Amino acid sequence: MENKEPLCQFKLMASRDALEVIQGKWRIPIIISLTYGKKRFGEIHRDIADISPKMLSQELKSLETNKIITRTLFDTKPLTVEYSLTPLGLSTTKLLDELLNWGIHFRNEVVGK
């Protein structure tokens, strides 16, 4: 019998890494907002109306640090900042689709239609 412990440990570590990046109430909605294209801060805030500007700013910084989004500055007056998904951020599409499918299934099973 082969030792599956290293594979198990690798999968546990990888899943923790993924959850660390997308954890919390706001990061997935921000990523979803940006799947519809490049947006400025105010546009993301309008998409996710119940997030405070301070929290949105913190979450955008975290997503940028984790290379999920990129922040582009334009030399305009006033200064324009645009956010977009990186290739790594775009790679979350399948994950988000599966999460949505499971969320619909969960809602139907537990909450009811």
Question: What would you say this structure looks like, in words?
Answer:
- This protein is an alpha+beta fold and 113 residues long.
- Helix content is 61%, strand content 12%.
- The chain is built from six helices and three strands; from the N terminus they run H-H-E-H-H-E-E-H-H.
- The protein has a three-stranded antiparallel sheet with strand order 1-3-2.
- The longest helix is centred in the last third of the chain and has 19 residues.
- The termini are far apart.
- The mean pLDDT is 92.
Helix content: 55-70%
Global shape:
globular
CA-atom Rg in angstroms: 17 Å
Strand order of the largest sheet: 1-3-2
Series of secondary-structure elements, N-terminal to C-terminal: HHEHHEEHH
Please tally the helical runs, counting DSSP H or I stretches of 4 or more residues: 6
Q: From the helix content, strand content and strand pairing, which structural class follows?
A: alpha+beta
Distance between the termini: 46 Å
The biggest beta sheet, please?
Answer: 3 strands, antiparallel
